[in-house]
Amino acid sequence: MRLPLVLLATLRPAASLVVSRAALPRLVLRGGAAEGAESDDGTSRLYPALDAHETGSIKVGIHDVAYAIYGNPQGTPALFVHGGPGGGTVPNHARYFDPEHYRIILVDQRGCGKSTPFASLEDNTTWDLVADYEKIREKLGIERWLVFGGSWGSTLGLSYAVKHPERVTALVLRGIFLLRKKELDFFYEGSGTAFVFPEAWEKYAEVIPSDEVERDGYVAAYGKRLRGELGEDEMRKAARAWSVWEGSVSRLLPPTPEALEAQWAGDDFSLAFARIENHYFSNGGFFERDGWLLEDAQIRRIRDIPCVIVQGRYDVVCPATSAWELHRKLPGSTLHVTTTGHSAFEPEIVERLVEATDGFRGLS
To answer: Who is most buried in 21, 48, 104, 229, counting CB within 10 A?
Structure first.
């Protein structure tokens, strides 16, 4: 029996679930590098574009980790945690926040964006990135901040909150990714998304010989290429295919070939994105065990932090099961299920994310 949406919205576990279905204006692709290279037609909920009023970096070992600050210099601090890993930030990421209220900090994680060395895998782990955020927080004299992240940004945002719950005023999370084997298999090994986007999957799969797939699997075979073990040409080819695969399936309405090429296939972006993603996925996200983030010991540390989760019903990059499991573990969380795919710039997702940051303006 098919239940109407109104009834579905009333079926709540111990926390708040909202199934939303807004008719909102469509965002327009403008080209660039990954999520955030998109802009709106002037009628979406994104706040107006603005320039950073401060930029800087921290030195950690071989890495220079870059950051940029937007909005009100005396405002409530908010940390934007980008996806990938390896995706980097762009100014559009600051537009989820009211610039008159928030002091918005965008950080390029190790090896990507304006951080150097470019595409480096050395000393590049989840816990290195968590430590970087703490160093930046201390440098900027911030006591506590709102943590906002989607996709891998939700993984890293949760990891930061688990390690430093006393520093987090609220969590705004989108497209939940818990970096479990079943999630990686669904997207990268052909057990899920390939059944929905077979034409895009074919281009991703054809890079790896079938006998190698049978022996090692796609993530391991791509990793060999992305680490440069088969030479630079194979590394670049694999990076482009890996990146374009994700870009091909991230939106409910797929991008045009021209937009896909401009946004995801550039040599520099795709190399950092693919190398760093694969590095993390090949190492289980550097967690102690598969499913570590959902274990009771970790959940106890964050269960009292106000949390809004925004999840695309038709997200085939980070399927909704992870958002649901996290929501059930966090009794005080609110889950918005949107009629969208994965992209943070699909209009209904924008609506719910901005609604969440607006709603947390009273926190300090």
So the answer is: 104
CB atoms within 10 A of CB 6: 8
Q: Look up 343 and say whether it is catalytic.
A: no
Half-sphere exposure of 362 (CA within 13 A, CB side): 3
Q: Choose, from 63, 93, 327, 342, the residue flagged as catalytic.
A: 342
Pick the catalytic residue: 151, 154, 248, 250?
A: 151
User: Active site includes 40?
Assistant: no
**Predicted confidence (pLDDT) per residue in 48-102, tens digit:** 999 999 999 999 999 999 999 999 999 999 999 999 999 999 999 999 999 999 9
DSSP state of 260: H
Is the bond into 91 cis (omega within 30 degrees of 0)? no
Half-sphere exposure of 207 (CA within 13 A, CB side): 29
Tokens of 159: 């990891």
CB of 97 closer than 8 Å to CB of 78:
yes
Query: Contact 174/149 with Cβ under 8 angstroms?
Result: yes
The one catalytic residue in 63, 315, 322, 327 is 315
